[in-house]
Amino acid sequence: MAHLLVTQLRFARSEFARGLEGVTDEEGQVRFMPMNCISWMVGHLANQEQRYWLMLAQGKTLFPGLNDLVGYHKPASTPALDEMWVAWRAITAEADAYLETLTAMDLLVTYTLKGKPVTESTGTLMLRNIYHYWFHTGEASAVRQFLGHTNLPEFVGDMNQAPFRLERD
Questions:
Q1: CATH code assigned at 108
Q2: Model pLDDT, residue 24
Q3: 3-class SS at 112?
């Protein structure tokens, strides 16, 4: 069974994706200043997962140009939504294979980058990733409202997918 934080990350991802069901590629590229467009948000979250769970944890990079396109402190972009979902799905699937193996003790470990320890533990990075999803879930909902979408999903959804449980390792 996956660690509780991994379960929570998967739930945050599923709520993010649920909140974007029905958004077209064209709508995904609309930008309401100063917010980013939905396609950027999808790619941005994929980029964070690639950086944490693929690059730092495993030394892998599935989408080399993703950071330049949607990375933190990079110029704004409006990538194709369909392409960002392809990247997001591939990266999260690859990340899940690794995340499934994490124990509570693994979450205390810090990764190294260019021979130096990363300042946050694996568990703290996991929390940062989870909270990042919730931030952009709300932002994406606001963009959808500006797009005129109605009957949007209510958050938070079915918590039975990710109930609290005691940690066991």
A1: 1.20.120.450
A2: 97
A3: strand
Q: Is the pLDDT of residue 77 over 70?
A: yes
150-155, long-range: CB < 8 A, 24+ apart: 152/19, 153/15, 153/18, 153/19, 153/21, 155/15, 155/19
Predicted confidence at residue 169, as pLDDT, reads 52
Structural domain containing residue 106: 4-158
Q: Identify residue 118 by its one-letter amino acid code.
A: V
For 155, the token pair is: 């958050």
Contact 96, 112 (CB under 8 A): no
Which phi-psi region, left, alpha or beta, contains residue 24 (left: φ > 0; alpha: ψ -120 to 50)?
A: beta
Give the span between the Cα atoms of 55 and 62, in whole angstroms. Answer: 9
Contact 15, 156 (CB under 8 A): yes
Q: How confident is the model at residue 155 (pLDDT cuts 50, 70, 90)?
A: confident
Task: Tell me if 152 is assigned to some domain.
Answer: yes
Q: How many domains does the chain have?
A: 1
Quickly state the pLDDT bin for 168 (edges 50, 70, 90): low
- At 113, which helix (H) or strand (E)? strand 112-113
